[in-house]
Amino acid sequence: MNSIPMPLEAEVQRKSGASATTRILARPELIILLVAAGLLYMWGLSKNGMANEYYAATVRAMSSSWHNFIYGSFDMNGVMTVDKPPLAFWVQSLSVRIFGYSSWSILVPQALMGVATVGLTYNIVGRRFGRWPAFTAGAVLALTPMTVAISRHNNPDAMLILLSVAAVWFVVRGLEDGRTRWIIAAGAAVGAAFTTKMGAGLLVLPALFVAYLWAAPIPRKRAFGQLLIGGGVFIAVAAAWPVLMALTPAASRPWISGTTDNSIWSLITQYNGLGRLNGQMGGPGGGMGGGGGGVFGGSTGITRLFNSALGPQVSWLLGLALVGGGAIAFFSRLRPSNANTGWIIAIGGSFATIALAFSFASGIFHPYYSSQLAPFTAMLVGGGIGALTSKDAGEVSEATRRYWLAGGLVAGLISTLWVLQNASDDNLSAWQAPLALIVLGAAAAIVFGGMEPRIRDAALIAAVIALLVAPAIWSVQTLGHATSGTFPAGGSASASAGSGMGGPGGAGRGAGARGNFGGPPPGGGTGGGGGMFGGGGNTQLTAAIAYSNSHGGGTIGVESQMTASSSIAGSGAQVAGVGGFSGRESTVSISWLADAVADGRLTYFVTGGNIGGMGNDGRAGSTAAMDAVAKVCTAVTLDTATDTTANSSTTASGFYDCTGKAAELKALAA
Predict the structure, then answer these.
(1) Collapsing DSSP states into helix, strand and coil, what is residue 581?
(2) Based on C-alpha coordinates, what's the Rg of the chain?
(3) Where are the domains of the chain?
(4) What is the pLDDT of residues 513-572, one digit of tens each?
(5) Alpha-helical regions (H) of 573-646
């Protein structure tokens, strides 16, 4: 390992005028790392299709008009927004506008974000601890199964993670020279992260504030002033889109999905804010009848990160990360004068905030959220190894570092074995004994080898490689099947199906789960109605779309956006889900519904589906709106001559034409 660490000497290179390209070429390990990450994230990418059809539908709608683009419309006619802020979908929509609507144009930007995050992780560790600890950190991140899955998917988390890590990178740069520009950039990055996934984008903010205020290389009063400036930039960036939504008259923009009052502030503070942590209707603590599980990542508690849903995705080297981070904090004594203090507060504090939030979040929590923890785990692994093998450890004795390093490897072994037990992966069960033998042997060699560099480095390399075998296998297995559907996860097709929905015994995930979410079942076909987030049923909706097209067009309102997503993503059909994602999140007013009918945003409705088939969780969703439609609008019988299993033509009810019924709906609202 060449007597790790080997410093990046960033300041020397900057002053010498070396170009970025020259610096990268001087580090072949970085090139290998980025190329490997690119292959993992883009190999066979098209097999993922449109990945999450809900977001693919959003991107198709947003790329169809600038009005839809600006306001984050889920549907083609600007009836409802998507339930997230639009920044990640702006990037995908611009790609679609440039390259056309396809799997590659949607997913390649996501993969490139993943590669960029690996590069930033390398640099954050390398700036303090050297090249090989930096390479280790990058490799740990690149080979985290959930990182692979999320980088091959169109969920907004790839951008959230990139922006969170970028904010940390800016603060680390600021800790080196105390320049205001880095704090301004960090504020902008956190603001952009908020515009990507709202509350989740703020999780790094406390640690970055404390790190810079405590350890900036300038007087504390001046550092506080810089933080105020950075905070102002953060507020300006984070508030720009919400203020636009708040100032735009409700009749001139889509209804804000995920709310019952059409308020962007409700979306921020409730559905995408504190409700995720404190419990909300539809989450484990909000009407789901029990302590969580299923799609919500299992029961809350300190061991949640090791359960069958989250453990195999992100927690393999968590033990080594904890010991490594603890070593940096212990050795630095958190003294402001120690160069490692600000680094460990920023990275370790972000890790702790995210880990605690995810462990105890009692609202809606899906296992793929844990991807935000992965880069900070990787940084603590790489940084810990760098600190424990550095010749510049100050007053820390070799013996102390030797025991910390051996203890870190043993802790990494424990977390890996814990994950392997919960992963129930028969292909890796035989690996547990060799893994234990290699890591324990390496730890013994480090303890009794007198910290002689060649012995230590050989033992350390062997142990780290051994610890990375299992997550690497899971990461590579992710490439063998479609990482699609609502809940992406890494591993084999069967393993990711279980972890994506909360562990073994959960509902299916990925391509095989689409039939449960309003999209076509595996192998094509129109599917049936209902399902987990069902609505009017695809056969009925297909007939309704045909009827609308043959009668001059018009947008069809259905109960859930998931019911509408397949038709929008597949053909750009004029369909809108008026009840939000599952049909329960948005409660539109009858008055608003009447206005939407009056101005032509909605014309037809398909009712009678099984709204959000996750049980009676107390949310009304689209129920009142659809009841009003059934009372006032004209019923139309559809010919659904697509029932090939019965080889006969059938008819379906629950389809309504609301043309000319706006006044009656308005009267009903009164």
Answers:
(1) coil
(2) 26
(3) 10-477, 538-669
(4) 333 333 333 333 333 333 344 433 468 898 999 999 999 999 999 999 999 999 999 999
(5) 590-598, 623-632
